[in-house]
Amino acid sequence: MTHDATQPFLATIEADRDREIEQIQTDADVQIKRIIGEAYAEAQHLQRDTNVRLRQELSVRQHKEMSRVQARIRRKRWQSLKQLQSGINQQVLERMHSAWAEPEWQWHWCRFWLQAAFERNDDTPLRLAISETALPKTLEQITKWAKQNRLSLDFDEPLPEPGLIIRWADFELDGLIGAQSHTIEAAVLARLTPRLHQVDTTILKS
Asked: Quick one: which of 39, 61, 60, 42 has its CA closest to 50?
């Protein structure tokens, strides 16, 4: 085959080669774009997962920190309430002891306990031990009250503390003012405890 005869054949081979190379390049570009797209999508997915995990971890840390702060605030508030309760208890008892010297208050205090005993017994004779500081007028009113209610009432030895103790059968009502400390504590605590459950938003936001 002469040089002139082979020229078209070589040109065809070169053209086929160029097309093959171009097709390979095109396919490569497509693959590269696909790989880049997949990698970009995977990176975005990974970033979203990372952001979600970071937000979750941040939320958990914030929740733990918030719980820790709230627990510390509750402890401080409880300590303050207990101190306040103790102070109020003492003030109430002191006022009650002072009020015992007032005739009207003293009689009302005695009548309250006498009435409680009257409602609990079955016409059983009562024995009454009352403070040695009880006023004569109070003793007269107690005697009169017993007669009006047709109750047998005997007086025991006077007590050194303000108040009275009433006994009948196997029962006893302790109306001494000092004995009411537990009742006062419970009443004061019942009033103060709701403050413990109030959320102090000012402290939490600061």
From this structure: 42
Q: Which two tokens stand for residue 198?
A: 């109030």
β-bridge pairing 164-168 and 126-130: antiparallel
DSSP string covering 97-165, please?
Answer: HHHTTSHHHHHHHHHHHHHHHHHHSSSPPEEEEEBTT--HHHHHHHHHHHHHTT--EEE-PPBSSSSEE
What distance in Å separates the CA atoms of residue 133 and residue 160, rounded to the nearest whole number? Answer: 8
HSE toward the beta carbon, residue 140, CA cutoff 13 A: 5
Rounded to the nearest 10°, the torsion over CA 97, 103, 105, 110 is 90
pTM confidence score:
0.58
Q: What is the DSSP letter of 171?
A: E
162-175 confidence digits (pLDDT tens): 999 999 988 999 99
Helix (H, G, I), strand (E, B) or coil at 45: helix
Inform me whether the pLDDT recorded for 201 exceeds 50: no
Q: What is the CA radius of gyration of the chain?
A: 47
